[in-house]
Amino acid sequence: MSNGSFFPAPGRRGGTLAIVLVALIPTCFVGWLLWSSLGGSKDDGADGAGGPTTSSTSSPPPPSSGASVPSAPTTPSGESGKPGAPGKPLKGKVVVIDPGHNPRNRDHASRIARLVDIGTEKKECDTTGTATNSGYPEASFTLDVARRARTLLEARGATVRFTQDGDRPYGPCVDERAEIGNKAHADAVVSVHADGAAAGERGFHVILPKSVRGGGADTSAITAPSRRLGERLRGEFAEATGSAPAEYIGDGSGLDVRGDLGGLNLSTVPKVFIECGNMRDSQDAAELTDTAWRERAARGIAQGITDFLNE
Asked: In what side-by-side order are the strands of the sheet with 205-209?
């Protein structure tokens, strides 16, 4: 070969390799023992599979006892609509929903016309309510929205009671409606209505009880909590439906205070009315008669009640 090299003599290469191996084996064995005594590579994972170690800023691992780590609460589909809300935020709460009027009131004109005591004066037992120009009754609207709101509230754990569920021949009268909420010791009562204002007047508003005292009426204990309920209801209803507060009443605030409604005067628990829109306005009527919009209205009402009861 070039550079003066020579092939090794036969048998010499094998002998040399054997000598080298015999010399290296003890050295490697000593090194392996030293490596093992130090715990192996610092980059090994806890299971010895060579994965990355947990850094000091990582979340701690689950307990080794087998107990599960509770996860952050999530909002059940179709319930509160608020991120992180617990699944049963209204457990133990009693809500009374008062669907305004009764679809069969018109068949009992003389009975609903009789006067009842509302504390400060006497007024009709009930009325037929209003209707859209196409004939869709307020009483049908209120019952539909009330039932939708009940489904949502019950899903959140509330006990929901109605003043009527289409199961009465007429009424009940306004004084009995108040009494139903009182006897239930309700945490909140909402009376669902739709207005019958002049065409061109649009929007919703919430009616709050005025501080009155006379006869069987004394709202002094409920005016403050009822206002908080009304304010919560106003905000959530506007957000859910996209509707604006009415400009034709309450100075555009969405709130109106009245002392001439038996359902409020005779209540001893927090209570408000909500007029969801104006049935005599064509644009509002188009919403009030729309099934999807009524579902949004129910969601706004249910969320307003939920917010108030979770204060």
From this structure: 159-162, 94-99, 188-195, 271-278, 205-209, 255-258
At 44, which amino acid appears?
A: D
For 95-127, the pLDDT digits (tens) are 999 999 999 999 999 999 999 999 999 999 999
196-239: pLDDT as tens digits = 999 999 999 999 999 999 888 999 999 999 999 999 999 999 99
Mean pLDDT confidence for 247-258: 97
H or E segment to which residue 179 belongs = helix 174-183
| Residue 285 zone, left/alpha/beta (φ > 0; ψ -120 to 50; rest) | alpha
For β-strands 115-117 and 122-124, DSSP reports them as antiparallel
Q: Which of 138, 231, 236, 275 is catalytic?
A: 275
What helix, strand, coil percent values describe the chain, rounded to 5?
A: 40, 15, 45
Residue 138 bears catalytic tag: no
251: left (phi over 0), alpha (psi -120 to 50) or beta: left
The answer to whether 111 and 101 have CB atoms below 8 angstroms apart is no
